Amino acid sequence: MNPSFYIVDDDKSIRKVLKNIIDQYNLGDVIGEAEDGIRAMEDIKNLRPQIVLIDLLLPGMDGIAIVCALKDMDLHTNYIMISQVTSKEMVSKAYTKGVEFYINKPINVVEVVSIINKVKEKLKMKEVIHSFEKAIHSMHVLKEYTGGREMNVTTEKDRIKKILSQLGILGEAGSNDIVEMILILLEQKEEVRGRLLNQKISELFAMLNQRYREDYEITTNVAAIEQRIRRAINKALKNIANLGIEDYGNDTFIKYGNTIFDFKEVRNQMDHIRGKSNYGGKISVRKFIEGIMMEMKNES
User: PANTHER family annotated for this entry (predicted)?
Assistant: First the structure.
């Protein structure tokens, strides 16, 4: 497990120390940093890091206020507060508002590593629980009969989610983006759909961003949407490759290994997992989306 980190502190040297600790002890990947609360809010909403290390006292917006606001957005992010403030009342307030742990300044390497590892264990446990939940959900989605009665998947959204469930990415942040993107394509005339997929996939990202803004009143940006989608597709590639390693005759591996991915890239990912290659497989958003739409067409 290699969680993503975002660091918020107005002291550049503190940010550098924390980044060095995370890198040196292989605790995860730092995907962003900020020195003030306003910028941090926007970045965290878009990047959706798994762990945020945040100073209590910040210019623009203090750490507790940021955590409160982000918690309301249900980003599934874990927050570690960093501060010189030792007031029991303030620390208690931080925990009450959603902070997972509290690190005292000056920074102590042992304390930082210990606390981050505790949060990583919590994330690992959440992932295990989530895997069970997804497995149970998949059983319900994929089960054709319940009590002798056939289940009817009536909407296009349900059919897309069924495929994402089979790929093991229904719970990923980018899965909702993938669903909405395919729904947008299905709404287009065939010639427009072909143009978006073959020439203007960047335009499709922009259309999805516009839908979020106008229909759902969600503020995001094209880069964040593309990043979430690529992460979800990468996870699907890893899942398919692992299935192939465990059982080359696995039905899901056979079904999707050459339709939503280039099979050469699936083999590259399998070699990477086995330790035979330093590089994993590459993904194509276009092929992935086209593959899902083809599967939907074949099942209709």
Answer: TRANSCRIPTIONAL REGULATORY PROTEIN GLNL (PTHR43228:SF8), TWO-COMPONENT RESPONSE REGULATOR (PTHR43228)
Q: What is the pLDDT of residues 238-261, one digit of tens each?
A: 999 999 998 888 889 998 988 999
What is the CATH number that goes with domain 4-121? 3.40.50.2300
Residue range(s) in the chain whose domain bears CATH number 3.40.50.2300: 4-121
Token pair of 235 as six digits? 């996870």
